[in-house]
Amino acid sequence: MKTTRITALAAIGLVAGLSLTACGNDSGKDTSAKGSSASSAPTESASSSASSASSSSGGGSGSGGSTDGQSASSSGGSGKAGSGSTGGGTTTSGKVTFCRTADLAIDAVDASPDKTSGRIDVTMVNRGSTTCSATGFPGVDIKDADHTSSPVDRGPAQPRITVLKPGAAAVFDIAYDIDSSGKSLTSPTDILVTPPNETHTVDLKWPAGAKPVKGSYVGVQVYPTHNK
């Protein structure tokens, strides 16, 4: 009887031990699985985040690099253009600048066509080494014997393109009515000429033989330049 109980208790103990071992093993497996899952999840998440960050950062950097590249390319292009423009490249050499007073030989002569119409032709010769433009109205003032100076108004005409190669000449006219009464109120002595688009003036003597100006200088007019 005692032997039977001992055997039964031993069997129960063995079964209990086996149950505990099985439970322990299952628990270990679960923990391992959970640990593995927890371990792999952050790694995958970090990898994805790193990949996203890399992609995002790479995209931004790429865009920035592309933008910088375009800017550099534009700057390079501009630099070349600027270099050509300031260094006497084709663009600069292709442009015709306005004639400077210092490069012009200017002279005035009487060119009155008859006894009533007074006209003075002012000729400008390009004595510079490059082609220049004398297009437009010149500035003209007439100095009188009483030491006054009167500006001359522009005549009703449109400027014509006037380009002067070295040695070429342009001319403009000063027109007025001739006083044949002998009672002119004017006594012109000099003509102050400022070429078109210039600020430097030359002083020319009133041409010998030029007829008296009728009335005052109010009716005197200057016309734009044209090639001679």
From TrEMBL:
Compositional bias, Gly residues, is annotated for: 57-67, 76-91
Signal sequence interval, chain numbering: 1-24
Composition bias (Low complexity) maps to: 35-56
Protein name as catalogued: DUF4232 domain-containing protein
In residue numbers, the region (Disordered) covers 26-93
Q: Which domain of life is it from?
A: Bacteria
UniProt keywords, alphabetically: Signal
Q: Check the record and name the PROSITE patterns matching this protein.
A: PROKAR_LIPOPROTEIN (PS51257)
Domain DUF4232, which positions?
A: 99-220
The record's listing under InterPro entries reads: DUF4232
Keyword Signal belongs to the record? yes
Q: Which organism is it from?
A: Streptomyces griseofuscus
